[in-house]
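Issue: ligand-bound run for NAP - logging full I/O for the record.

Environment: standard queue, default settings, no custom constraints.

Inputs:
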Amino acid sequence: MPSSQPAQQAAGTSHRPTIRAAVRSEYGGPEVVEVRDVPTPTPGRRQVLLRVVAAGVDRGQVHMMTGTPSVMRLATGLRRPRRTGLGLEVAGVVEAVGPDVTGLVVGDAVYGAATSSFAELAVADPRKIARVPTGVDLVRVAALPVSGLTALQALRDVARVKAGQRVLVIGASGGVGSYAVQLAAAMGCDVVGVCSAAKADLVRSLGASEVVAYDEQELPADGAFDVVLDIAGGRPVAELRKAVRPAGTLVLVGDETGSTVTGNLGRQIRASLASLVARRGPRVRMFVSSTRRADLEELAGYVERGQVRPTLERTFPLEETATALAHVHEGRVRGKVVVEMPKES
Ligand SMILES: NC(=O)c1ccc[n+]([C@@H]2O[C@H](COP(=O)([O-])OP(=O)(O)OC[C@H]3O[C@@H](n4cnc5c(N)ncnc54)[C@H](OP(=O)(O)O)[C@@H]3O)[C@@H](O)[C@H]2O)c1
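Outputs:
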């Protein structure tokens, strides 16, 4: 029988009717994003309310802001965004717990995904958050969840990498790539990273044995890699396949070069289908990551063992969320940036 208990709330919570949050009412560039007072969100029976300490800025939030590729508007609102808030990655502290939630209590420090996390308070599904890795502060942890899980799932579930394999990470200096390099190295692979020459130092420091600067060198075409993760650049699949061993796997994670209508979806679907019917050559697979508690716990383990560090370039205060989104939009980021909430007074 459903409980009639109200949400368990943190003692001393201010119960303010409004919070500060980054919002927009139309699709567009960073100029459509403003920070203002919005009603305090209320968790449902199976949700928790988080006091957000910091929220990572992943590429997906740039897509949510611009409404491109426009095929995504079928889900997010055709003419205008249905949800005004932005932000998905989160690190924070449980502030209130819905009556049907078990395993989490007020005061737990957690990380993962929350709805509209560029805000002082945000609602989360307990299945999409986990306890934070010990020994790392919450601001750094906020740079980890969605980008880190995408890298983990691409390597572990899609490419099924094994120790001793050679892995090529294209887009190694960004959010997903910076974790893919570290995770593949932690899994015992020899990792080669592809990025601009300006970010080669970062990629080497993350554990790549070699860096290919795409603005100075050609992509390897010697069929020497067991796994290629294509995270940026949108190169023709035929070109990418030349880097992969016949029994290897090419994983199409994403890129920003596709059409404004379908993005990289068409290229990914065509290449995956062609690979499924082909009798020879490397497997080509697309995939969409998902936020799961068990995977967040696994990722936290890598961090606690010192095998993965959050690749935090810098933080922006909540009031400068639009600038943080612009920084990611322009491709200037080295690893990740994070939006930090004002400290509680
Ligand atoms: N499939 C999924 O579930 C999933 C999940 C998350 C993200 N994604 C997608 O994956 C893509 C990457 O996301 P992200 O968060 O890692 O983005 P990001 O932080 O912008 O990183 C992309 C990196 O690629 C590098 N790059 C740009 N052009 C390149 C080229 N021609 N060759 C090699 N590297 C290049 C950029 O740096 P430099 O060129 O300056 O070195 C940048 O650091 C996006 O399209 C995103 O939407 C997909």
